[in-house]
């Protein structure tokens, strides 16, 4: 039986494995269907991780994490986890593809979340070259330039306000004429002179060249179009939380889940199920920053040690 099963090999999972094994847990496996590193490995530039002054791409940044996390005994198994079950004897069963079962005393779920796509032409082609889903990560690259923000919820409006502090102008594109965001946030956006509302329209196409994005074509409900010439577009149309491993055979979830499908945890990354932790972008109120995911993982890893000590 494993001391700890970690599901997901991004910054949260690797950090959890590092702290758990360095803290004394001997039998720890991190399950990930691909190579460790997570979504950040596809990032072209990373410059805001504390203590790492050199700007690096995501792959170069994450490579040392993998070696370091395995130094104290963490093992990586390239396998797809289908489900986590809590057994009557308080252990967990991790069900892998092919109906293989692995038992563990405690589990940390770090499967993350994936930003939803706008679904327009050019979105995939220019992702990472002008198309972004993270203003905190990439906003600085557009200092004193104009950008487009897409979305009508709290995240979209908050990120538009954040970008307005950096960029010369922000075009906020929303498919309706009313926003889903909190009224106080909507009021701030409307009063900000750097933000222009582009309402009742959707992004129809993102155009660019070898250097990246050059134009965002907005199509309005009346059929008219507008060409907004910008080098960057930030999309905030929601997240698909990767919580499938927590779904039980009857359709319920193993632990408490928020209305946005995120795992509800406390400050120690504990879920509503004793011995089950969640860390990184899968949890409620996740800031979606590498440094925060790493912190979550460290907290969860230390929590797993404390839980196992309590069992004894």
TrEMBL record:
* Swiss-Prot/TrEMBL keywords: Disulfide bond, FAD, Flavoprotein, NADP, Oxidoreductase, Redox-active center
Textual note on the cofactor: Binds 1 FAD per subunit.
Q: What is its EC number?
A: 1.8.1.9
**Can you name one GO molecular function term for this protein?**
thioredoxin-disulfide reductase (NADPH) activity
What protein name applies here? Answer: Thioredoxin reductase
What does the record give as the reaction this protein catalyses?
Answer: [thioredoxin]-dithiol + NADP(+) = [thioredoxin]-disulfide + NADPH + H(+)
- List the NCBIfam families hit by this protein, alphabetically: TRX_reduct
Please describe the quaternary structure of this protein.
Homodimer.
Q: Locate the FAD/NAD(P)-binding domain: which residues?
A: 3-297
Q: What is the lineage of its organism?
A: Bacteria, Pseudomonadati, Campylobacterota, Epsilonproteobacteria, Campylobacterales
GO cellular component terms listed in the entry, alphabetical order? cytoplasm
Under which main EC class is this enzyme filed? oxidoreductase
Which gene is annotated as encoding this protein in its UniProt record? trxB
Q: What cofactor does its activity depend on?
A: FAD
| PROSITE patterns cross-referenced by the UniProt entry | PYRIDINE_REDOX_2
- What family does the Swiss-Prot or TrEMBL record give for this protein? Belongs to the class-II pyridine nucleotide-disulfide oxidoreductase family.
Lineage, top-rank taxon, reads Bacteria
**Which one GO biological process term can you cite for this protein?**
removal of superoxide radicals
